[in-house]
Amino acid sequence: MKKTVFVPVCFILCSMFLLGGCGRGEGDEAFAAVSIRKMQDAYYDVVMDYTGRTSNEMGKALAEEILRVVPDYESIADSLLKDQFDMLAKHNLSPDFPTALSRAQAILPKVPREYLDELAGMQEIFNFDTDVLGDGRFSKNELVILQVFQDVIRPTQCSAAAAFGGSSATGKTILGRNLDWDALPRNDMSRMHAVTTTKNGEKSIVMVHFLGMLTPATAYNDNKIFGAFLDAETGAPYPADLSSKRSYCLDFRYALENMSTMQEIADFLKTKEYAFNHLLFMADEESAGVLEQNIGSPGRGFRRVDSELRKGVVWDVPDALATVNDFRLPGNFVYPDDDPSDNNRWKTYRTLLSSYLVRGTKIDVEKMKGISGYYGTDGNAYTSGAVFLSNRIVTAQSIILNMETLEMWIHFSPVGTGPMPLNPTYIRVKTLLEM
Description:
By secondary structure, this protein is of the alpha+beta class. Helices cover 31% and strands 21% of the residues. It is globular and about 60 Å long.
């Protein structure tokens, strides 16, 4: 069952004092609903308080507060989308903006009503009607694309690993998750890092994503269920018929808000139809798993540490699990040429985890930082098996989480157009759900 988190009174009073220093009156409804603070010059700490408010009101309050705290947000978000679509066009990849919008419009009717209402509330503020990428305005439709980005535009590489049980220094799960993305010319994504806490009773969650998104790239709830998405491309064309296709990002948010076990969430998601094949890395205090969403495949299912793997794949690390951007269960798609990026990173995780355990050293937070932050020799998965990337693909966020306490450390890719760092800098990120 979902449980209510009781926050110490001293913490609440301190938080009220800090927020009160922003210069807004107590009667300001938008401020009461949403607070946004820039933290350590690295990310935005967002708190959305749903108490007594509709989803539409929350969406509107979020957009209003974004523009108050980040006055140039429209130009940043617009520039991000322009660079992303320009990159696709440069490499003769699809889709273009009209095609992406058409996909989104076909998927949105299957999105849970409360999220559509939040989106509609945001569109009351981001209400520009002309879709011109690069014009410095963030239109209603550009906002739609941002929300269902992973459902209509294929993302890129990611990876994750976890140690639990006898392999963990605490006996509870300690995990690392890297969110990787294309290195875009203006690096606008690094100006939008956000950690959002929704205060919504038993539906409260934390999302690590980008400012203005209602969808989680990485998230966990107060039942200590964690989830993060990874791409898993098969080369199949985007489906022409989207009548049954849903948003896997928003379905996961719904599951995280309404369900309390990994298996329950996996069972819910693996019955749905989605346009893109993908992976969902999940963890709780006791273990971890990967939902391999090879849509339509007989091998589609939830991979655990003791699952049978496809022929030729070896995983012999006890009480530990890893995932890269491919399927490892029998019956799922296998790259004909055995993609070196995936195989190299799989080998890296296996080698690094084993190197500690064979010496009788268990994995703690610091060791997981070393594993998730492994940059090889050049930050390139293809040449040196790096899992922390700083080449054409870069690690935008590297997240370390202690599932026992929900203590979290994150590397956020820095702002700027120069080379990305070869190794990560983790900072402590605190949320209201931390135990």
